[in-house]
């Protein structure tokens, strides 16, 4: 692993988010981003996350079987503000928008 990759491997913190889905549902919560590329949400759900530094975006997979098995993709629009999309992978076809704030090192 090169120095550039090592820098991004050390990302940790919290991603506070709100989502608004095309089926009328909405919600809010927090993903805690752990250094081992796992995330934990506010109700203890666990899964994986990734960061693509060249595009400045996070990819989060939500706990399978919970909340539509969501895949979330958010991109920085300001230093700590992000926006993106959320897609259900349960076959429902539900998708929506996500707004998030990144809090490094929490």
What is the strand and helix layout of this fold?
Blueprint: H1 3-9, E1 13-21, E2 26-33, E3 38-41, E4 46-52, E5 57-61, E6 70-76, E7 81-88, E8 95-104
Provide a short characterization of the protein structure:
This protein is mainly β. The protein is built from one helix and eight strands, in the order αββββββββ.
Q: Low-confidence segments, ≥5 residues, pLDDT <50? A: 1-8
Q: What is the β-strand count?
A: 8
Q: Biggest β-sheet: count, sense, barrel?
A: 8 strands, antiparallel, barrel
Radius of gyration: 13 Å
Strand order of the largest sheet: 1-2-3-4-5-6-7-8
Overall mean pLDDT score?
Answer: 83
Estimated helix fraction: under 10%
Summary keywords:
mainly beta, eight-stranded antiparallel barrel, 8 strands, 106 residues, 1 helix, disordered N terminus
How would you sum up this structure, described in words?
The protein is mainly β and 106 residues long. The chain has one helix and eight strands; from the N terminus they run αββββββββ. Strands 1-2-3-4-5-6-7-8 form an eight-stranded antiparallel β-barrel. Strand 3 and strand 4 form a beta hairpin. The radius of gyration is 13 Å and the shape is globular. The N terminus is likely disordered.
């Amino acid at each position: 692993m090169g120095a550039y990759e090592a820098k991004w491997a050390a990302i940790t913190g919290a991603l506070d988010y709100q989502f608004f889905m095309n089926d009328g549902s909405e919600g809010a919560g927090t993903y805690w981003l752990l250094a081992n590329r796992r995330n934990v949400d506010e109700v203890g759900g666990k899964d994986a996350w990734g960061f693509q530094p060249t595009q400045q975006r996070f990819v989060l997979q939500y706990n399978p079987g919970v909340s539509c098995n969501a895949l979330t993709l958010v991109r920085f629009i300001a230093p700590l503000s992000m926006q993106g999309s959320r897609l259900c992978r349960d076959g429902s076809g539900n998708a929506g928008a996500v707004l998030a704030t990144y809090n490094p090192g929490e």
